[in-house]
Design a protein that fits this description.
The complex is a heterodimer of chains A (432) and B (238). By secondary structure, chain A is mostly beta strands. Chain A has 2 helices and 32 strands. Helix content of chain A is 3%, strand content 41%. In chain A, the strands form 9 sheets. Chain A has a 4-stranded antiparallel β-sheet, with no helix packed on it. Chain A has a 4-stranded antiparallel β-sheet with strand order 2-3-4-5, with no helix packed on it. The two termini of chain A are 16 Å apart. Chain B is mainly α and 238 residues long. Chain B has helices at 6-23, 33-37, 40-60, 66-82, 84-87, 100-107, 110-123, 152-164, 182-185, 214-225. Helices cover 49% and strands 0% of the residues of chain B. In chain B, helix 3 runs antiparallel to helix 4. The model of chain B is unreliable at 1-28, 32-39, 87-112, 124-171 and 187-209 (pLDDT under 50). In chain B, 26% of the residues are buried.
Chain lengths: 432, 238
């Protein structure tokens, strides 16, 4: 693995590649979106082949004040999702806790010159000086990237939005908060359809919240949502207008030997992602990542331990609230490798075919440009190798919550608090 | 009674919480001989206290994280269920390090905890700027406390009133510390008052009912309507 690039910003809260991988968007705690673009590989500068550079930066959300409830609404960007590109422009959805916005990103690299009625600065010409007509000509100019808000989808959510997902029909998308999921049409901002509502009639019966949701990549009628109790519900929008009755419920029975007061908290699913193929789902809970087959509801087909050495530390992690951290997970383009973040700026990758896994670190010290990333190891007592880190010296403030994988190549984006790392595997560029 | 400023008070309370967590952290250390050999009951009780503190802290946020809240409450219920034989009894003397909050919640039933949490969750959209805390509702009757309705804010105030004394260190007064009460404290119409000295010592001390003449009434109206700045009220006989 070769480390390529590093940017420092505000605390990054979301990372997302677009469908071709040419663009990478990040959202941060200050409501800003920064888009990176991959430079085309050129023979002139072989060393900067395919590196990502800043393409555009804009303020997506501002802090707001809800006067009715006397509450401040954070501008932090919770999620960004790209729309499939349908013309020369790029579009993305960005959301904070309450409001989703559709942004259009266009390029301008030509400028018309030679107007008849106005001069270069745009001022009206004195007509008496105009003696002949000319046809304005498009002249090249320095590339300008323009971003404009096209839609604002507001007032759809009482609770905090945790997910957005664009439908494969490219016309609709869904947004999920703690208790409800809404379906929007991309062109209509003044209404949305509520498709899931788990708010109980009596709030005293509330025992479960929605933690993540996603549309199926190919079947526009199917979507999944995960809960704080560790279950997944696959819903079919053709079956009913209100999808409170799931089509399938995916739940693994509790392991009696591992039972503790914290069983429910650590089973809470923090992220769910369909595989590119649409056959599987990937979930992340506090200690594991699991692969589920859509045809088998009883249990996951694969379970990978992210940091099982934390199992004996759950009490401390409950006390300092780390047990509530929400890690994301990601598939590679061929669905053969899965990745997720951990503590101490470590991130983990699991090869589903070879069953091998690796722990890597995203840090300045270990990421010199063109250097090879060295696998790390956490030791739990017993034999300790030279570069091992002991469990007790892990830094729990350095958490990698947000990661993204290029849709086709071995390029990953890792958000480590306020630093963005982009790693590219030069040796194994092709998917296998 | 001395009232401290609202913000300062909250920070002090949080610092006290952090302090108590740091001091009590010994029971979190699995290597600690006392913890390793401790009977499950002691560990459960400490976890219970911790969970109650977390719930308290979570509910005090202006907009609590619902997921965090639900997970903490469910964990609290699990712990309580495992302590059931002890928790169902009238107030059990808790470990000396436990806060008053935990004492009261140990004494309350699970239904009361659900009810208080539920009603507070219900009020999340309605309550403005009031600190929220779990309440022992043992003396409040069935959990069907009206939540919505015409004045949900007032409903919450009623709830927080009598029972709050033990939970808010500065009692009921603490809820209103950021409201300017100088208007209500000053004795505008007491003929013998020295001016606008706020404070209870001026009020309750008066034995005579103050008498208002027309000029004073007019003056009062002007002040209330805001056309006149507050100044020394006219003396008697004008």
């Amino acid at each position: 693995m070769v480390s390529l690039s590093l940017w420092e910003a505000d605390i990054i809260s979301t990372v997302e590649f677009n469908h071709t991988g040419e663009l990478l968007a990040t959202g941060d705690k200050g409501g800003r979106v920064v888009i990176f673009q991959r430079e085309p590989e050129s023979k002139n500068a072989p060393h900067s082949q395919g590196e990502y550079d800043v393409y555009s930066t804009f303020q997506s959300h501002e802090p707001e004040f809800d006067y009715l409830k006397s509450l401040e609404i954070e501008e932090k960007i919770n999620k960004i999702k790209w729309l499939p590109q349908q013309n020369a422009a790029h579009s993305l959805l960005s959301t904070n806790d309450k409001t989703i916005k559709l942004w259009k990103i266009t390029e301008r690299d030509k400028r018309p010159e030679g107007y008849n009625l106005k001069d270069e600065e745009g001022k009206l010409k004195d007509l008496s000086t105009v003696t002949s007509l000319q046809v304005p000509v498009l002249k090249p100019m320095d590339l300008m990237v323009e971003v404009s808000p096209r839609r604002v989808f507001a007032n759809g959510h009482t609770y905090h939005i945790n997910s957005i997902s664009v439908n494969s029909d490219c016309e609709t998308y869904m947004s999920a908060d703690d208790l409800r999921i809404n379906l929007w049409h991309l062109a209509i901002t003044d209404r949305s359809f509520n498709i899931v509502d788990i708010k109980p009639a009596n709030m005293e019966d509330l025992t479960e919240v929605i933690t993540a949701s996603e549309f199926h990549p190919h079947h526009c009628n199917l979507f999944v949502y995960s809960s704080s109790k560790g279950s997944l519900r696959l819903c079919d929008m053709r079956a009913a207008a209100l999808c409170d009755k799931h089509s399938k419920l995916f739940e693994e029975p509790e392991d009696p030997s591992n039972r503790s007061f914290f069983s429910e908290i650590i089973s809470s699913v923090s992220d769910v992602k369909f595989s590119h193929s649409g056959r599987y789902m990937l979930t992340r809970d506090y200690l594991t990542v699991k692969v589920w087959d859509l045809n088998m509801e009883a249990r996951p087909i694969e379970t990978y331990q992210v940091h099982d050495y934390l199992r004996s530390k759950l009490c401390s992690l409950y006390e300092n609230d780390c047990i509530f951290d929400k890690f994301e997970c990601a598939w590679n383009g061929s669905d053969s490798v899965i990745m997720t973040g951990a503590y101490n700026n470590f991130f983990r990758m699991f090869d589903r075919n070879t069953k091998r896994d690796v722990t890597l670190e995203a840090s300045r010290e270990s990421s010199k440009p063109r250097a090879v990333l060295k696998p790390r190891r956490v030791c739990v007592g017993g034999k300790r190798r030279r570069d091992d880190i002991s469990v007790d010296s892990l830094d729990f403030t350095k958490k990698i919550l947000h990661t993204a994988w290029h849709p086709a190549e071995n390029i990953i984006a890792i958000a480590a608090t306020n630093n963005l790392y982009i790693f590219q595997d030069k040796v194994n560029s092709e998917m296998h | 009674m001395m009232l401290s400023k609202g913000l300062k008070r909250k920070r002090e309370e949080e610092e006290e919480e952090k302090e108590s967590l740091a001091v009590d952290a010994w029971w979190l250390d699995p290597g600690h001989p006392a913890v390793a050999q401790a009977p499950p009951a002691a560990a459960s009780s400490s976890l219970f206290d911790l969970s109650v503190l977390k719930l308290h802290h979570s509910l005090r946020q202006s907009e609590p994280d619902l997921r965090h809240l639900v997970l903490v409450v469910n964990t609290l219920r699990r712990i309580q269920a495992s302590m059931a034989p002890a928790a169902a009894l009238p107030p059990v003397p808790s470990p000396p390090a436990a806060s008053g909050v935990a004492d009261n919640l140990l004494a309350s039933s699970d239904a009361a905890l659900s009810a208080s949490m539920a009603s507070l969750l219900e009020d999340l959209s309605h309550i403005e700027g009031l600190s929220q805390a779990p309440q022992p509702l043992a003396d409040e009757g069935p959990p069907g406390r009206p939540t919505g309705g015409a004045s949900p804010g007032l409903g919450a105030l009623d709830l927080l009133g009598p029972a709050t004394g033990c939970l808010l260190d500065d009692g009921f007064e603490g809820l209103f510390e950021d409201i300017d009460t100088s208007m209500y404290d000053s004795e505008l119409w007491a003929p013998a008052s020295e001016g606008l000295k706020p404070g209870p010592e001026d009020g309750p001390g008066k034995e005579e009912a103050p008498e208002l003449d027309e000029a004073e009434l007019d003056y009062l109206m002007d002040v209330l309507v805001g056309t006149q700045a507050l100044e020394r009220p006219p003396g008697p006989g004008r």
